[in-house]
Design goal:
Blueprint: H1 5-19, H2 21-26, H3 37-44, E1 47-49, E2 56-58, H4 74-89, E3 94-96, H5 104-115, E4 122-127, H6 135-146, E5 153-156, H7 162-174, E6 180-184, H8 191-200, E7 205-209, H9 221-228, E8 231-235, H10 242-248, H11 264-273, E9 280-281, H12 288-295, H13 305-316
The structure holds NADP nicotinamide-adenine-dinucleotide phosphate.
NADP nicotinamide-adenine-dinucleotide phosphate (NAP) binds near residues 65, 265 and 285.
Length: about 325
């Protein structure tokens, strides 16, 4: 099979990343204070290279659907700001939102303003309107909600009106007003059309559902992303909470300790980010304790293929 230049470049960069794992993971970050778990996680969190540029991003990101849709309730907003603080302290960067998520964008904007952190996140949002003409206006409203200078990544949400929106996003990228362009889907919807766009459009990112219980993407989308040199964001890692709730009713398998997992969240997330085509997983949470558990999945040993099979079997038995 002929390799695309992106795929060749990706393999080269992956080699560099693997051969210098900890120096790259720690690049540009302050040295960890010995007493701080967050700082230790920050220094060691697994990084992945975006194939189209080689830029490294942390493998654990943060979703915002439902959990950050808290309206203007001041206490709830402060709680979400603390989640963002803990996320950044643990070395996180990519936050994902959408105009579809109620007040989530404003909650993120409030947190970033409070923490003075608008320049420290990898801001990933979406365009979600059936009208191509309304796309630019919606994107500008979203940007104001986030209070960022520009988005790092904009994705066409659920492929809605993709013909019109992709033109807008590629034009923004060409003008330097956007860094990366992507598309999203979830729960296995429209995979055939999604696959066609992955083949035909110069996408930087794709986002779809992938976890140890929902593995359809292993058949076509994940191998295709590798072949085409497209970065992958995995959404719904906990099936919107159902998977982690079911898992938490069972004892954690003793062998989870072999890859440094002390809870189910870490086992489920490590399964996802150990797939070689996945660049970032975006669990959503409104709780600092859960956030810290999730960020722990970016640290330490990752499951090998045999351990990945054990995780699938354990999840099938839930
Ligand atoms: N088409 C699309 O573009 C699309 C579709 C779906 C999702 N997404 C993106 O993907 C993100 C993630 O998906 P999701 O929000 O559907 O759900 P998810 O991340 O699979 O699950 C979120 C749920 O898990 C719980 N949780 C998180 N960490 C936990 C932990 N350590 N222990 C126990 N419970 C935990 C959260 O509750 P607590 O608040 O109590 O922690 C929340 O109820 C979304 O937020 C969104 O950004 C995109």
């Amino acid at each position: 099979m002929t390799q695309s230049p992106r795929a060749t470049r990706r393999r080269f960069l992956d080699g560099l990343l693997a051969s210098a794992a900890s120096p790259v993971a720690a690049a540009g970050r302050p040295k960890a204070a010995p007493e701080s778990d967050a700082a230790r996680a920050s220094a060691r969190i697994a990084m992945r290279r975006i194939p189209s540029t080689g830029e490294a991003i942390p493998a654990i990101g943060l979703g915002s659907w439902i959990t950050f849709n808290v309206g203007r309730d001041p206490l709830a907003r402060e709680r979400c700001a603390e989640v963002i603080r803990a996320f950044l302290e643990a070395g996180g960067s990519l936050i994902d939102s959408s105009p579809m998520y109620g007040s989530a964008q404003e909650t993120i904007g409030h947190g970033l303003a409070k923490l003075g952190a608008a320049g420290r996140v990898f801001a990933a949002d979406k365009v979600w309107t059936g009208s191509g003409a309304r796309g630019p206006e919606q994107i500008e409203t979203s940007r104001r909600h986030w209070s960022v200078a520009r988005f790092d990544l904009l994705q066409v949400h659920n492929l809605l009106a993709w013909e019109a929106h992709l033109g807008t996003l590629f034009a923004m990228k060409a003008e330097g007003r956007l860094r990366y362009v992507g598309i999203t889907t979830s729960e296995g919807r429209r995979h055939a059309e999604f696959e066609r766009l992955m083949r035909e459009q110069p996408l930087d990112f794709v986002q779809f559902s992938y976890n140890a219980a929902d593995r359809e993407a292993e058949q076509r989308l994940l191998p295709l992303a590798r072949e085409r040199g497209i970065a992958v964001i995995a959404n719904r890692p906990f099936r919107q909470g159902d998977l982690i709730r079911a898992a938490s009713r069972r004892p954690l398998p003793v062998w989870a300790a072999e890859i440094g997992c002390s809870n189910w969240a870490q086992l489920l997330l490590k399964f996802i980010v150990s797939h070689p085509a996945v660049h970032c997983v975006i669990p959503a949470t409104g709780r600092v304790d859960h956030l810290r558990e999730n960020m722990g999945a970016g640290v330490g040993a990752m499951p090998d293929p045999a351990m990945r099979r054990r995780i699938v079997e354990a999840v099938a038995g839930l």
